[in-house]
């Protein structure tokens, strides 16, 4: 059983039925995480703060290519196999095309793709393109800023040029 760091706050939250008892949360988190296919949470603590890190489950890896797997490897024909082109989704290709003219915010990207709001597909595409360094933040020091926009990198512009040649 734990000791509340702020007894006044704990008393208030207990009366509001926001907490059941002191010290049961971490144990319940550990027990509940065992029911899910993900690593157990990592808990870091010092004298003043604690942090619980929930790790995402490992995604299935891409199938290996080669003669044993039945998948052929190697680039497809044409400029499509240019710099980091193997974009995994049509949404990612659409995001690249939308950013060709000028930087856009996520909501503007979604609208350019015909979405009413930012969807999971748009978020995944933006993350994929950031990871592949085809787009970048306009405010790199503030990735979560409400003013954040995205623009093509040099590699992104090369990819767009290759896509235009294919069209």
Question: How would you explain this protein's 3D organization?
Answer:
The protein has 167 residues and is mostly helical. The chain has helices at 7-15, 25-33, 90-98, 106-112, 120-131, 154-166; strands at 42-45, 50-53, 135-137, 150-152. The protein has 2 domains: 7-53, no CATH class; 83-166, Winged helix-like DNA-binding domain superfamily/Winged helix DNA-binding domain (Arc Repressor Mutant, subunit A), CATH 1.10.10. A hairpin with a 4-residue loop joins strand 1 (42-45) and strand 2. Helix 3 crosses helix 5 (120-131). The protein is elongated and about 65 Å long. Residues 60-84 have low confidence and may be disordered.
Mean pLDDT metric = 77
Main sheet?
Answer: 2 strands, antiparallel
CATH architecture of the largest domain: Orthogonal Bundle
What does the overall shape look like?
Answer: elongated
Poorly predicted ranges: 60-84
The helix-and-strand class reads mainly alpha
In the CATH hierarchy, what is the class of the largest domain? Answer: Mainly Alpha
Order of helices and strands: HHEEHHHEEH
CATH superfamily of the largest domain: Winged helix-like DNA-binding domain superfamily/Winged helix DNA-binding domain
Identify the strand order in the major beta sheet: 1-2
CATH fold-level assignment of the largest domain: Arc Repressor Mutant, subunit A
């Amino acid at each position: 059983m734990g000791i509340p760091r702020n007894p006044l706050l704990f008393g208030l939250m207990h009366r509001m039925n926001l907490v059941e008892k002191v010290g049961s949360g971490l144990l319940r988190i550990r027990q509940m995480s065992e029911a899910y296919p993900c690593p157990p949470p990592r808990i870091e603590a010092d004298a003043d703060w604690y942090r619980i890190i929930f790790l995402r489950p490992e995604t299935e890896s891409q199938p290996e290519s080669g003669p044993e797997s039945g998948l052929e490897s190697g680039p497809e024909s044409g400029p499509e196999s240019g710099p980091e082109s193997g974009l995994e989704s049509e949404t990612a290709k659409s995001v690249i095309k939308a950013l060709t003219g000028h930087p856009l915010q996520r909501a503007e990207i979604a609208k350019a793709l015909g979405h009413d709001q930012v969807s999971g597909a748009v978020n995944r595409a933006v993350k994929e393109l950031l990871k592949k360094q085809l787009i970048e933040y306009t405010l790199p020091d503030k990735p979560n800023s409400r003013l954040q926009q995205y623009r093509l990198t040099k590699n992104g512009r090369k990819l767009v040029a290759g896509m235009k040649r294919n069209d």
